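Figure 3 (text version): C-alpha coordinates given as input.
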Protein backbone atom coordinates (compact mmCIF):
# COMPACT_ATOMS: atom_id res chain seq x y z
CA UNK A 1 0.00 0.00 0.00
CA UNK A 2 1.10 3.58 -0.65
CA UNK A 3 3.04 5.11 2.20
CA UNK A 4 3.39 8.73 3.21
CA UNK A 5 5.48 10.86 0.86
CA UNK A 6 4.89 8.61 -2.13
CA UNK A 7 2.57 9.26 -5.04
CA UNK A 8 4.76 10.65 -7.83
CA UNK A 9 4.13 9.01 -11.18
CA UNK A 10 6.17 5.88 -11.99
CA UNK A 11 4.43 5.02 -15.28
CA UNK A 12 2.25 7.29 -17.41
CA UNK A 13 0.25 5.77 -20.27
CA UNK A 14 -1.73 8.02 -22.61
CA UNK A 15 -4.12 6.95 -25.37
CA UNK A 16 -2.77 3.42 -25.84
CA UNK A 17 -4.51 1.37 -28.54
CA UNK A 18 -3.89 -2.16 -29.83
CA UNK A 19 -5.37 -3.70 -32.95
CA UNK A 20 -4.67 -6.80 -35.03
CA UNK A 21 -4.56 -7.10 -38.78
CA UNK A 22 -6.79 -10.01 -39.81
CA UNK A 23 -8.10 -11.24 -43.16
CA UNK A 24 -10.60 -8.65 -44.28
CA UNK A 25 -9.51 -5.76 -42.10
CA UNK A 26 -8.29 -4.62 -38.69
CA UNK A 27 -9.62 -5.90 -35.34
CA UNK A 28 -9.47 -3.32 -32.50
CA UNK A 29 -8.71 -4.82 -29.08
CA UNK A 30 -7.61 -1.95 -26.80
CA UNK A 31 -8.92 1.54 -27.50
CA UNK A 32 -7.51 4.76 -26.05
CA UNK A 33 -6.40 3.47 -22.64
CA UNK A 34 -4.82 6.05 -20.31
CA UNK A 35 -3.69 5.65 -16.71
CA UNK A 36 -1.01 6.62 -14.21
CA UNK A 37 0.79 4.25 -11.84
CA UNK A 38 2.33 6.01 -8.86
CA UNK A 39 5.49 5.08 -7.01
CA UNK A 40 4.90 2.65 -4.15
CA UNK A 41 1.23 2.01 -4.92
CA UNK A 42 -0.79 -0.88 -6.30
CA UNK A 43 -3.16 -0.03 -9.14
CA UNK A 44 -5.72 -2.73 -9.84
CA UNK A 45 -6.80 -3.25 -13.45
CA UNK A 46 -10.07 -5.18 -13.40
CA UNK A 47 -12.73 -6.38 -15.81
CA UNK A 48 -14.25 -9.48 -17.36
CA UNK A 49 -12.10 -11.85 -19.40
CA UNK A 50 -11.48 -10.39 -22.86
CA UNK A 51 -11.67 -6.76 -21.73
CA UNK A 52 -8.10 -6.03 -22.83
CA UNK A 53 -6.24 -6.07 -19.50
CA UNK A 54 -3.42 -8.41 -20.49
CA UNK A 55 -3.06 -6.89 -23.96
CA UNK A 56 -2.63 -3.49 -22.32
CA UNK A 57 0.23 -4.74 -20.15
CA UNK A 58 1.94 -6.59 -23.00
CA UNK A 59 1.71 -3.48 -25.18
CA UNK A 60 3.30 -1.34 -22.45
CA UNK A 61 6.23 -3.77 -22.24
CA UNK A 62 6.36 -4.12 -26.05
CA UNK A 63 5.92 -7.87 -25.87
CA UNK A 64 3.34 -8.09 -28.68
CA UNK A 65 4.57 -9.30 -32.04
CA UNK A 66 4.20 -6.52 -34.61
CA UNK A 67 2.75 -7.46 -37.01
CA UNK A 68 0.10 -8.81 -36.60
CA UNK A 69 -0.36 -6.44 -33.64
CA UNK A 70 -0.47 -2.69 -34.28
CA UNK A 71 0.25 -0.55 -31.22
CA UNK A 72 -0.20 3.22 -31.03
CA UNK A 73 0.08 5.63 -28.11
CA UNK A 74 0.52 9.33 -27.46
CA UNK A 75 3.12 8.47 -24.83
CA UNK A 76 4.17 5.67 -22.48
CA UNK A 77 6.47 7.53 -20.11
CA UNK A 78 8.77 5.71 -17.70
CA UNK A 79 11.77 7.26 -15.95
CA UNK A 80 12.05 10.01 -18.55
CA UNK A 81 11.78 7.65 -21.53
CA UNK A 82 8.89 7.18 -23.93
CA UNK A 83 8.69 3.39 -24.11
CA UNK A 84 6.67 3.58 -27.31
CA UNK A 85 9.49 5.32 -29.16
CA UNK A 86 12.83 4.15 -27.74
CA UNK A 87 14.89 1.54 -29.60
CA UNK A 88 14.51 -2.18 -28.98
CA UNK A 89 17.98 -2.44 -27.44
CA UNK A 90 17.16 0.20 -24.84
CA UNK A 91 13.77 -1.42 -24.18
CA UNK A 92 15.47 -4.79 -23.70
CA UNK A 93 17.77 -3.22 -21.11
CA UNK A 94 14.74 -1.95 -19.17
CA UNK A 95 12.64 -5.15 -19.32
CA UNK A 96 13.48 -7.47 -16.47
CA UNK A 97 15.52 -4.76 -14.75
CA UNK A 98 13.52 -1.56 -14.17
CA UNK A 99 10.25 -2.96 -15.61
CA UNK A 100 9.20 -6.50 -14.86
CA UNK A 101 6.20 -8.81 -15.15
CA UNK A 102 4.70 -11.82 -13.41
CA UNK A 103 2.96 -13.68 -16.22
CA UNK A 104 -0.46 -15.28 -15.93
CA UNK A 105 0.45 -18.98 -16.06
CA UNK A 106 3.81 -19.96 -14.53
CA UNK A 107 3.81 -23.48 -15.96
CA UNK A 108 3.82 -22.14 -19.52
CA UNK A 109 5.90 -19.02 -18.75
CA UNK A 110 8.80 -20.89 -17.14
CA UNK A 111 11.19 -22.74 -19.45
CA UNK A 112 10.63 -26.48 -18.80
CA UNK A 113 14.17 -27.31 -20.01
CA UNK A 114 16.00 -24.98 -17.63
CA UNK A 115 16.42 -25.30 -13.88
CA UNK A 116 14.70 -22.76 -11.67
CA UNK A 117 18.05 -21.40 -10.56
CA UNK A 118 19.30 -20.78 -14.06
CA UNK A 119 16.13 -18.89 -14.96
CA UNK A 120 16.65 -16.53 -11.99
CA UNK A 121 20.40 -16.27 -12.57
CA UNK A 122 19.93 -14.93 -16.11
CA UNK A 123 18.52 -11.45 -15.33
CA UNK A 124 21.04 -11.00 -12.51
CA UNK A 125 23.91 -11.71 -14.91
CA UNK A 126 22.34 -9.84 -17.85
CA UNK A 127 21.22 -6.67 -16.05
CA UNK A 128 23.37 -6.44 -12.90
CA UNK A 129 26.58 -7.88 -14.35
CA UNK A 130 27.01 -10.45 -11.57
CA UNK A 131 29.30 -13.43 -11.95
CA UNK A 132 27.75 -16.88 -12.12
CA UNK A 133 28.62 -17.66 -8.51
CA UNK A 134 27.37 -14.31 -7.21
CA UNK A 135 24.15 -14.64 -9.23
CA UNK A 136 23.51 -18.12 -7.84
CA UNK A 137 24.04 -16.92 -4.27
CA UNK A 138 21.52 -14.11 -4.84
CA UNK A 139 19.12 -16.55 -6.53
CA UNK A 140 19.11 -18.79 -3.47
CA UNK A 141 18.53 -15.73 -1.29
CA UNK A 142 15.62 -14.66 -3.50
CA UNK A 143 14.02 -18.11 -3.37
CA UNK A 144 14.27 -18.03 0.40
CA UNK A 145 12.81 -14.51 0.44
CA UNK A 146 9.73 -15.60 -1.50
CA UNK A 147 9.13 -18.45 0.92
CA UNK A 148 10.39 -21.50 -0.97
CA UNK A 149 11.71 -24.18 1.42
CA UNK A 150 15.21 -25.59 0.85
CA UNK A 151 16.01 -22.83 -1.68
CA UNK A 152 19.40 -24.23 -2.74
CA UNK A 153 17.74 -27.53 -3.63
CA UNK A 154 14.85 -25.76 -5.35
CA UNK A 155 17.32 -23.84 -7.52
CA UNK A 156 18.46 -27.17 -8.98
CA UNK A 157 14.87 -28.26 -9.69
CA UNK A 158 12.87 -28.00 -12.93
CA UNK A 159 9.45 -26.28 -13.07
CA UNK A 160 7.47 -29.54 -13.26
CA UNK A 161 8.99 -30.63 -9.94
CA UNK A 162 7.34 -27.75 -8.07
CA UNK A 163 3.71 -27.14 -7.11
CA UNK A 164 1.63 -24.40 -8.70
CA UNK A 165 2.08 -22.14 -5.69
CA UNK A 166 5.84 -22.67 -5.68
CA UNK A 167 6.08 -21.94 -9.41
CA UNK A 168 4.17 -18.70 -8.86
CA UNK A 169 6.67 -17.75 -6.16
CA UNK A 170 9.49 -18.50 -8.60
CA UNK A 171 7.88 -16.14 -11.13
CA UNK A 172 7.77 -13.43 -8.47
CA UNK A 173 11.43 -14.06 -7.61
CA UNK A 174 12.42 -13.72 -11.29
CA UNK A 175 10.36 -10.54 -11.68
CA UNK A 176 11.81 -8.91 -8.56
CA UNK A 177 15.41 -10.14 -8.97
CA UNK A 178 16.69 -6.74 -10.16
CA UNK A 179 14.47 -4.72 -7.80
CA UNK A 180 12.32 -3.13 -10.55
CA UNK A 181 10.65 0.24 -10.23
CA UNK A 182 7.43 -1.12 -11.81
CA UNK A 183 6.04 -4.64 -11.59
CA UNK A 184 3.10 -5.86 -13.67
CA UNK A 185 1.39 -8.85 -12.04
CA UNK A 186 -1.04 -10.53 -14.45
CA UNK A 187 -3.54 -12.70 -12.56
CA UNK A 188 -0.85 -13.78 -10.05
CA UNK A 189 -3.30 -15.89 -8.01
CA UNK A 190 -5.28 -17.60 -10.80
CA UNK A 191 -5.87 -21.34 -10.22
CA UNK A 192 -4.38 -21.20 -6.71
CA UNK A 193 -6.38 -22.29 -3.67
CA UNK A 194 -7.43 -19.55 -1.26
CA UNK A 195 -4.67 -20.29 1.26
CA UNK A 196 -1.88 -20.05 -1.33
CA UNK A 197 -3.61 -17.02 -2.88
CA UNK A 198 -3.51 -15.21 0.45
CA UNK A 199 0.18 -16.09 0.87
CA UNK A 200 1.05 -14.76 -2.60
CA UNK A 201 -0.80 -11.47 -2.01
CA UNK A 202 0.87 -11.05 1.37
CA UNK A 203 4.24 -11.73 -0.22
CA UNK A 204 3.65 -9.07 -2.90
CA UNK A 205 2.70 -6.51 -0.26
CA UNK A 206 5.76 -7.31 1.86
CA UNK A 207 8.13 -7.11 -1.11
CA UNK A 208 6.50 -3.86 -2.24
CA UNK A 209 7.00 -2.34 1.22
CA UNK A 210 10.62 -3.50 1.18
CA UNK A 211 11.51 -2.36 -2.35
CA UNK A 212 9.06 0.50 -2.99
CA UNK A 213 7.97 -1.11 -6.24
CA UNK A 214 4.86 0.21 -8.00
CA UNK A 215 2.55 -2.68 -8.95
CA UNK A 216 -0.01 -2.88 -11.76
CA UNK A 217 -2.21 -5.77 -10.58
CA UNK A 218 -4.32 -7.33 -13.32
CA UNK A 219 -7.23 -9.49 -12.18
CA UNK A 220 -10.92 -10.21 -12.60
CA UNK A 221 -11.21 -10.95 -8.86
CA UNK A 222 -12.61 -7.99 -6.95
CA UNK A 223 -11.81 -9.64 -3.62
CA UNK A 224 -8.12 -9.59 -4.57
CA UNK A 225 -8.42 -5.89 -5.46
CA UNK A 226 -10.12 -5.12 -2.14
CA UNK A 227 -7.27 -6.79 -0.22
CA UNK A 228 -4.36 -5.43 -2.22
CA UNK A 229 -4.95 -2.31 -4.33
CA UNK A 230 -4.76 1.40 -3.50
CA UNK A 231 -6.56 2.52 -6.66
CA UNK A 232 -8.50 0.68 -9.33
CA UNK A 233 -9.17 1.10 -13.05
CA UNK A 234 -12.15 -0.79 -14.49
CA UNK A 235 -11.91 -1.98 -18.12
CA UNK A 236 -14.75 -2.93 -20.40
CA UNK A 237 -14.53 -3.88 -24.09
CA UNK A 238 -11.00 -2.54 -24.46
CA UNK A 239 -11.60 0.78 -22.71
CA UNK A 240 -11.21 2.10 -19.17
CA UNK A 241 -14.67 3.11 -17.93
CA UNK A 242 -13.95 4.11 -14.31
CA UNK A 243 -11.03 4.87 -12.00
CA UNK A 244 -10.70 5.81 -8.34
CA UNK A 245 -9.35 4.93 -4.91
CA UNK A 246 -10.38 1.38 -4.14
CA UNK A 247 -12.34 2.13 -0.95
CA UNK A 248 -14.31 4.95 -2.60
CA UNK A 249 -14.99 2.99 -5.77
CA UNK A 250 -16.26 -0.04 -3.83
CA UNK A 251 -18.45 2.15 -1.60
CA UNK A 252 -19.71 4.44 -4.39
CA UNK A 253 -19.36 3.00 -7.90
CA UNK A 254 -20.12 5.54 -10.62
CA UNK A 255 -20.40 3.34 -13.71
CA UNK A 256 -23.31 0.86 -14.01
CA UNK A 257 -20.79 -1.80 -15.12
CA UNK A 258 -18.73 -1.35 -11.96
CA UNK A 259 -21.93 -1.45 -9.92
CA UNK A 260 -22.90 -4.70 -11.65
CA UNK A 261 -19.50 -6.27 -10.99
CA UNK A 262 -19.73 -5.45 -7.29
CA UNK A 263 -23.29 -6.83 -7.05
CA UNK A 264 -22.10 -10.06 -8.66
CA UNK A 265 -19.52 -10.82 -5.95
CA UNK A 266 -20.69 -13.90 -3.97
CA UNK A 267 -21.61 -13.20 -0.36
CA UNK A 268 -22.47 -15.40 2.58
CA UNK A 269 -26.21 -14.99 3.18
CA UNK A 270 -28.67 -16.67 5.51
CA UNK A 271 -31.24 -17.38 2.79
CA UNK A 272 -30.21 -20.71 1.25
CA UNK A 273 -31.94 -20.09 -2.10
CA UNK A 274 -30.70 -16.53 -2.62
CA UNK A 275 -29.96 -15.84 -6.30
CA UNK A 276 -26.59 -14.37 -7.20
CA UNK A 277 -27.16 -11.18 -9.24
CA UNK A 278 -25.61 -11.12 -12.70
CA UNK A 279 -25.02 -8.62 -15.47
CA UNK A 280 -27.33 -9.59 -18.36
CA UNK A 281 -25.98 -10.08 -21.86
CA UNK A 282 -22.38 -10.51 -23.00
CA UNK A 283 -19.39 -8.30 -23.77
CA UNK A 284 -19.58 -7.19 -27.43
CA UNK A 285 -17.02 -8.74 -29.78
CA UNK A 286 -14.00 -6.47 -30.48
CA UNK A 287 -14.91 -6.15 -34.16
CA UNK A 288 -18.56 -5.39 -33.45
CA UNK A 289 -18.54 -2.52 -30.97
CA UNK A 290 -21.52 -0.14 -31.09
CA UNK A 291 -21.18 3.55 -31.98
CA UNK A 292 -22.11 4.69 -28.50
CA UNK A 293 -21.31 3.25 -25.07
CA UNK A 294 -20.13 -0.35 -25.38
CA UNK A 295 -22.09 -1.23 -22.22
CA UNK A 296 -25.39 0.35 -23.32
CA UNK A 297 -27.01 -2.90 -24.48
CA UNK A 298 -26.50 -4.41 -21.00
CA UNK A 299 -27.33 -1.28 -18.99
CA UNK A 300 -30.68 -0.65 -17.25
CA UNK A 301 -30.15 3.13 -17.42
CA UNK A 302 -29.21 3.56 -21.09
CA UNK A 303 -31.08 6.12 -23.19
CA UNK A 304 -30.76 7.11 -26.89
CA UNK A 305 -27.66 9.22 -26.17
CA UNK A 306 -25.90 6.19 -24.69
CA UNK A 307 -26.57 4.17 -27.84
CA UNK A 308 -25.49 6.93 -30.22
CA UNK A 309 -22.52 8.71 -28.60
CA UNK A 310 -19.44 7.28 -26.94
CA UNK A 311 -18.80 8.79 -23.48
CA UNK A 312 -15.27 9.94 -22.65
CA UNK A 313 -13.43 9.31 -19.40
CA UNK A 314 -14.05 12.50 -17.41
CA UNK A 315 -13.29 13.70 -13.88
CA UNK A 316 -15.99 13.19 -11.26
CA UNK A 317 -14.39 14.73 -8.19
CA UNK A 318 -10.91 14.30 -6.70
CA UNK A 319 -9.11 11.23 -8.12
CA UNK A 320 -12.31 9.85 -9.67
CA UNK A 321 -13.06 9.41 -13.39
CA UNK A 322 -15.90 7.74 -15.24
CA UNK A 323 -16.93 7.26 -18.87
CA UNK A 324 -20.72 7.36 -18.57
CA UNK A 325 -23.49 9.73 -19.64
CA UNK A 326 -25.42 9.00 -16.45
CA UNK A 327 -23.01 8.31 -13.54
CA UNK A 328 -24.84 6.45 -10.82
CA UNK A 329 -23.88 8.74 -7.93
CA UNK A 330 -22.22 11.66 -9.75
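Below: residues designed for each position.
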Amino acid sequence: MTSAGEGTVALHVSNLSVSFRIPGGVLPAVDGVSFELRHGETLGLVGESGSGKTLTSLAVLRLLETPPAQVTADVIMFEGRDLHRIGESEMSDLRGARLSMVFQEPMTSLNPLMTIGRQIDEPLIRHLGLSGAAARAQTVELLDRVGIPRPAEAARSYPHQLSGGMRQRVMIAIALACRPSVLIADEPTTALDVTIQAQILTLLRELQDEMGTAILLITHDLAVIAQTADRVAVMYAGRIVETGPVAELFARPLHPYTEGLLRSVPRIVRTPLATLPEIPGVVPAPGNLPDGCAFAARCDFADPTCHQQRPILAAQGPDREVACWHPRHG
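Residues 1-5 have pLDDT under 50 and may be disordered.
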